[in-house]
């Protein structure tokens, strides 16, 4: 083989190896989205990218790729980096696969141009699509991981001003609130958007997740971590289409049938209540702690008891098998909100050592 021939065969070997690496990596990520995240939207988008990559590869004759293949003669097969043999969890596997896919798509794009400039462009389009998709995957995984550790969920209103509200939520997050929900029925759309944008920006550097009540459009617009909807708002499946797979979806439930529906609609967590009479919202019926027991027996989804919960009645919620609560008045109407957050959180953490709900 002369120099020109061996360069050409080297290019075909690169294209062959990169194509295999890209399709294996995409399949690895797709399986994660399908079986670990259980996310139909993301799985479908990944499948489409796999098909798009296969279509781009149609410009590379299979016979030429196979003719150039020389796995035993590949000097790279024996090289192994220490991190290649260590994967902490399924997410780490998916993220490592995403990095390999992006590198392979870049190789296909650059070396593909030697064969045909159109092939380079087709793989470039795949690479750009992969950036957005993989960012979605990482955000979703991180949010779900953080949600799994959340126990104390605090509902706040817009306060007297945006500045007063951001000061309050920063204090609550610092004291140990795991999630903060902006719930304010008085604000008009513009005001709610502005409050939500400020709250999202305040909480972004912290571990505390930020959820917008009722409004998937505003949650998406301000890049919130998620949205919470009740039984009288948009159906969960519609909300999911608005917020995308990467944001958290919370659904209010008042009976076991609603819990089952929320689970099958793809909720990431549920609110269960009202448990006790509330100073924040009035109710005619209280499913109470009996419902908490039933919900605890129905789902393993993160479930937050809500409604009139405070330090004085928390033990009944814990006895019902819950170690996650959502509270408003007990904290926002307390003389020392930060101290109340710390107290409730400490009791929830203690409970979590014996049960994991
Ligand atoms: C965590 C959590 N659980 C339940 C609710 C109540 O939602 P909904 O039934 O839609 O009532 P409103 O809050 O909209 O009045 C919630 N907001 N958060
Ligand atoms: C919005 C809502 N939904 C059920 S109870 C409730 C209010 C929660 O506030 P509080 O903790 O003050 O009862
Ligand atoms: Mg609502």
Question: Any overview of this molecule?
Answer:
Helix content is 57%, strand content 10%. It has 14 helices and eight strands. Strand 4, helix 9 and strand 5 form a beta-alpha-beta unit. The protein has two domains: 145 residues, Ferritin (Up-down Bundle), CATH 1.20.1260; 208 residues, Aldolase class I (TIM Barrel), CATH 3.20.20.70. Strands 1-2-3-4-5-6-7-8 form an eight-stranded parallel barrel, surrounded by seven helices. The model has no long low-confidence stretch (mean pLDDT 93). With 357 residues, it is of the alpha/beta class. The structure holds ligand LCLJCK34, 4-methyl-5-hydroxyethylthiazole phosphate and magnesium ion. The site of magnesium ion has 5 residues, from loops. It is an enzyme of class 2 (transferase). Condenses 4-methyl-5-(beta-hydroxyethyl)thiazole monophosphate (THZ-P) and 2-methyl-4-amino-5-hydroxymethyl pyrimidine pyrophosphate (HMP-PP) to form thiamine monophosphate (TMP). Keywords: Magnesium, Metal-binding, Thiamine biosynthesis, Transferase.
Which labels suit this protein?
about 350 residues, 2 domains, binds ligand LCLJCK34, elongated, eight-stranded parallel beta barrel, binds 4-methyl-5-hydroxyethylthiazole phosphate, ThiD2, binds magnesium ion, 14 helices, alpha/beta, Ferritin, Thiamine-phosphate synthase, magnesium, TMP_synthase, TIM Barrel, thiamine biosynthesis
């Amino acid at each position: 083989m002369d120099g020109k021939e061996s360069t050409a065969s080297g290019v075909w070997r690169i294209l062959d190896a990169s194509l295999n690496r890209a399709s294996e990596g995409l399949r690895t990520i797709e399986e994660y989205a399908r079986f670990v995240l259980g996310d139909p939207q993301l799985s479908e988008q990944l499948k489409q990218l796999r098909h798009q990559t296969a279509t781009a590869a149609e410009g590379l004759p299979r016979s030429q790729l196979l003719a150039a293949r020389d796995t035993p003669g590949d000097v790279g097969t024996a090289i192994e980096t220490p991190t290649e043999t260590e994967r902490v969890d399924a997410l780490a596997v998916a993220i490592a696969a995403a990095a390999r896919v992006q590198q392979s798509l870049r190789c296909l794009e650059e070396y593909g141009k030697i064969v045909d400039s159109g092939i380079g462009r087709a793989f470039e389009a795949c690479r750009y699509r992969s950036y957005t998709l993989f960012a979605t995957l990482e955000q979703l995984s991180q949010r779900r991981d953080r949600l799994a550790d959340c126990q104390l969920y605090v509902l706040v209103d817009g306060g007297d001003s945006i500045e007063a509200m951001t000061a309050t939520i920063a204090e609550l997050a610092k004291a140990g609130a795991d999630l903060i929900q902006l719930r304010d029925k008085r604000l008009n759309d513009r005001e709610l958007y502005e409050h939500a944008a400020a709250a999202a920006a305040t909480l972004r550097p912290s571990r505390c997740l930020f959820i917008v009540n009722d409004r998937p459009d505003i949650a998406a617009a301000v890049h919130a971590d998620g949205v919470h909807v009740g039984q009288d708002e948009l159906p969960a499946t519609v909300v999911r289409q608005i917020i995308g797979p990467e944001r958290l979806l919370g659904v209010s439930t008042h009976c076991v049938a609603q819990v089952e529906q929320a689970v099958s609609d793809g909720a990431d967590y549920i609110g269960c209540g009202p448990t006790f009479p509330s100073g924040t919202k009035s109710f005619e019926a209280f499913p109470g702690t009996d419902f908490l027991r039933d919900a605890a027996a129905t789902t393993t989804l993160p479930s937050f008891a809500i409604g009139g919960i405070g330090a004085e009645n928390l033990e009944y919620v814990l006895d019902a098998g819950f170690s996650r609560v959502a509270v408003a008045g007990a904290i926002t109407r307390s003389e020392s909100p930060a101290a109340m957050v710390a107290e409730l959180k400490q009791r929830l953490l203690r409970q979590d050592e014996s049960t994991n709900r």
